[in-house]
Task: structure prediction
Amino acid sequence: MKQYKSLDLAKFVSAILIIILHTAPFATYSNVLNFGFRNIITVIAVPFFFLTSGFLAFKKIDSLEKGKRNAYVFQYLKRITVMYLIWTAVYFVFVVIKWTRGDFSIFSVLEYIKDFFFEGSYSTIWFLPALFGAILIVYLLHKRISYTSIFTIFCFVYLFTLGGSSYYGLVTDVPFIKAVYDAYYSFFDSIKNAVCFGGIFVSMGAMVAEREEAITKSTTAKKAIVPVIICAILLAVEEFLVAYFGWNDKGVDTVIMLVPFTYFFVRFLLCWNVNISDSTCVAMRKYSILMFLTQRIPLSIMTMFFAETIIVQNSMLYFAFILFSTILISFLILKASKKISWLRFAY
Result:
């Protein structure tokens, strides 16, 4: 399969952006920089991971004979499931620690079981079950309708997502709409799942995969960067307005311009030829997913045991420590996987 070096580079940078999202390195020094990174720059990372995952998965699926597609999708989803179970086992240690500190009850166990199936067994790794569900839904729907139609359906779903996140404070002024979201949040804790969040970006990735040849032939990197810049400016303006009016009671990770920005950004990357060695790309690919999934280990350790230390209290020092720790853990896993074969299923 074709190697997409620009995507590998962007995924590695996105993994770092997610760490920035969770550590807020500029919080101690500048409210403006902190807002810029937290509300504008870092929010592109997770949608980008969904889109590229959908792009690569359906690029492969569509290249296969119809009789072989079901088997490939089964293996793909099986791999995600194994990854999810491995990381669930790793992070269950922190769940147990939380329970032993007085948060244990039948309700907390039932809540954990519910989260395992619907929202992710631990923070950050919610991405895996959401990706599983989104890939499966898009694949099954595509047996009946086009990728464009699937994407259109998820655009309407995304309207619900917007109301349950960045625009919650605006739409819930209407009593009926508030009742709908109250009912939703009475069971779910987050709007981030396969249907509400993953579906639109995975289906967009499938759509881009279908049109890749036409995209790369019709434009150049210089031309493709123009709509990216325009969408980035509009994204920044939208995030500012949402924050200014205080609508984002339920988070800032889903706004309207996030969809076109992610689309045009990936289009640009497909047209951008990056001069990076194959081995470097393979390394960045492995590190990006491992950094994405392992960062909660040092984050949880610092939050649970060292919350009052200078490392946590100084935002830039905190970011540097978490970034270094995440890269180190990822390196150790890659090193160990050469001798312990099952570790390769972790990434």
Remarks:
- The chain has a mean pLDDT of 95.
- The CA atoms of residues 14 and 45 lie 5 Å apart.
- DSSP finds 16 helices and no strands in the chain.
